Amino acid sequence: MVLRYAMSRRRVGLSVHCQAKQYELRICIHRTCKRQGSEQLLKFAVDLGLPSLKAAPIGCLGNCGNGPNMVVLPDERLLHHVATPNDLAQVLRAFCRTSIDDTILQATQLRLAGNAHAAQQDFRQAINCYSQALQLGPSVGTHMLYSNRSAVYLQEGDKDAALADAQRAVEYAPPGFHNAAIRLIDTLFALGRFDEAAELCKRTADQDSSFKFREEYTAIKKALQSVGQQV
Question: Which residues form the signal peptide (predicted)?
């Protein structure tokens, strides 16, 4: 697909202080753009984890119906019809001096497809997508693939596979990626290894206090308390 975008240099009332070679995408998540998939596009941009790029939501940018719309900072380039991961890759290449390796792009698309299958409880197909993505050997995002596949394995009842993937997710996870610890805690709990689950919960909270503000933390704490574990 050839990216169909319209570019405007009109000012949109934004200012940002950027270091050299630092770019920011502000992606509209207002009603029309949201219906056109802008939230999924934002998640894709965030999940890429590129150090030279920040992605964040923004309100309506106008040109409703021509979206998803976004603005690229610091140049304040307003873009339209950026609808797919491939479209976004072209935007990054053209305006942000950033090329996404094809392997990363393919792996991310497979992960998103796996997420969609998991949401439909098609666990076998979800696992297949995550496994294909891991076989590609992407340089970023591996921790999310292991984390997601662990969750699906656990839902299928394959606790050993869920444990192995959760351990890998924790190993590869960057600071602040709490999902990996949550997956491992969930699996340890399912295996009846309550003391290990409680210890990991405490350690994760000690390392990053923001973990305590996750909804999952409250649920984990209650579950552990129900089996006599204090967190």
Answer: none
